[in-house]
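Colleagues,

For the teaching module next term, I've prepared a clean inverse folding example: a structure given as tokens, and then the sequence designed for it. I'd like students to try predicting residues themselves before seeing the answer, so please don't circulate the second half yet.
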């Protein structure tokens, strides 16, 4: 029973990782587009906000990869 719960939690974590990494790719592409539209004299607030959003999401992905969100359970 416990093994089944751990397996289900791991499957959920994997699905969340896939979703979050896809979102990271999208956000990173948007950030690059924003940066490409600026010059050395202009730093858009949108660029800073996008970078902060990427940072938060990347931290979340890191924690999920480590299994911190699920009590440290990492199945082989």
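(Answer key — instructors only)
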């Amino acid at each position: 029973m416990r093994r089944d719960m751990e397996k289900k939690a791991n499957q959920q974590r994997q699905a969340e990782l896939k979703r979050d990494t896809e979102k990271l790719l999208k956000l990173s592409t948007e950030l690059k587009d924003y940066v490409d539209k600026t010059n050395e004299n202009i730093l858009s607030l949108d660029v800073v906000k996008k970078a902060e959003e990427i940072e938060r999401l990347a931290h979340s992905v890191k924690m999920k990869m480590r299994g911190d969100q699920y009590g440290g359970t990492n199945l082989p």
